[in-house]
Write a structure and sequence with these properties.
Layout (H helix, E strand, L loop, with lengths): L1 H23 L16 E8 L1 H7 L2 H8 L4 E8 L5 H9 L6 E6 L5 E3 L5 H5 L6 E4 L10 H4 L2 H11 L4 E5 L17 E2 L2 E2 L4 H18 L4 E3 L1 H9 L23 H15 L28 H16 L9
Parallel strand pairs: 1-2, 1-5, 5-6, 6-9
Antiparallel strand pairs: 2-3, 3-4, 7-8
Helix pairs in contact: 1-11, 4-7, 9-10, 9-11, 10-11
Length: 321
């Protein structure tokens, strides 16, 4: 009964927040470019860096829990610290990535694949969705997005003509992380300093413009869900606080779960789920960041609420009361 009462309270708060968001901002609700994606058989190729691992490593387990009839495949092509410039080089020159991990419903666990050559992976199967992201050091300035995006999207359409292209909104650094203020981030060629919210605003503005200018089919607002969650009691979790292990990467457990919820809702177009996971340190997660923490039932419901708000407003922070 206590669990149901708390769930009802969170649902009421979510509805109130939806109403406030709709009336308190000039940002229209996000409308995907194409019709709903069929999820009876779904294959996703995610091209990125460790932020992609943080965001998507739990995604297969959400499909197992909520849509167990989906024949699901998720591949992650990884290059550490990779930016769109990295993808331009690796995809254009058919290079090997640092690693390629794949999860399939048939196997039910993550596997490190032996062949990580770009074009081999692109042709490995008919990918339903291919996701891209920007590296964090280039994520605050729009000019960093447009140097090679035409080439990258054109190459992906050429090799995978039936795939839909998705853009993943990455998280901002956590407050207190030196990268916010030590000149790591540049603006117009000059060192720039941010708070976490300011960095997220810059990332979101770039993502909004990019997905509009280049007609991406789908937005995965993973970083938006994280920034929403940092303004709730979830912000206390993580070795470095703000859901992070080191101020940069998401802490295993609730930090990565928030992002996975956002990705799941964006892909399936479902509403907020009352679905919880029991995540264990023994799970075969590629490149984990620390120990699993914060995965209580209440925290997971808050995570779903943050993800739902991110789905409806992917380019702005929406506080959860």
């Amino acid at each position: 009964m206590k669990h149901l009462l708390h769930l009802f309270t969170l649902l009421c708060l979510l509805l109130m927040t939806n109403s406030c968001a709709a009336n308190g901002t000039d940002e229209p609700a996000y409308e995907p470019q194409k019709t709903d994606i069929k999820t009876d058989t779904l294959s996703i190729l995610a091209i990125g860096n460790s932020f992609t691992y943080d965001a998507l490593s739990y995604l297969p387990y959400l499909f197992q829990k909520i849509k167990p009839t989906t024949h699901f495949t998720l591949g992650i092509l990884y290059y550490p610290g990779g930016t769109l410039d990295t993808q331009y080089d690796h995809l254009g020159n058919n290079r090997h990535y640092t690693s390629y991990h794949r999860w399939t419903s048939d196997v039910g666990t993550w596997q490190k694949m032996t062949d990580s050559q770009a074009h081999h992976v692109l042709h490995e199967q008919d990918w339903s969705i291919i996701t891209l992201q920007q590296g964090s050091v280039d994520s605050n300035e729009y000019a960093n997005y447009t140097r090679h995006i035409d080439f990258i999207m054109g190459l992906l359409h050429e090799h995978c003509p039936g795939s839909r292209l998705a853009w993943m909104v990455t998280p901002a650094y956590a407050d207190g992380y030196l990268g916010l203020t030590n000149g790591l981030l540049k603006l117009n060629g000059q060192p720039a300093s941010y708070t976490s919210d300011q960095m997220f605003e810059a990332i979101a503005a770039c993502a909004r413009q990019l997905t509009t200018d280049y007609h991406f089919d789908l937005v995965l607002p993973c970083g938006t869900a994280v920034q929403n969650a940092r303004h709730t009691l979830l912000g206390q979790y993580g070795v470095s606080g703000s859901l992070t292990y080191d101020g940069l990467h998401q802490q295993e457990g609730i930090g990565c779960f928030v992002e996975a919820c956002a990705a799941f809702l964006a892909i399936t177009r479902l509403q907020w789920q009352d679905a919880t996971l029991t995540i264990q340190d023994s799970w075969n997660i590629p490149y984990p960041h620390g120990k699993v923490t914060g995965m209580g039932v209440t925290n997971q419901m808050i995570a779903w609420a943050c993800a739902q708000q991110a789905q409806e407003h992917p380019f702005q922070v929406t506080p959860i009361p």
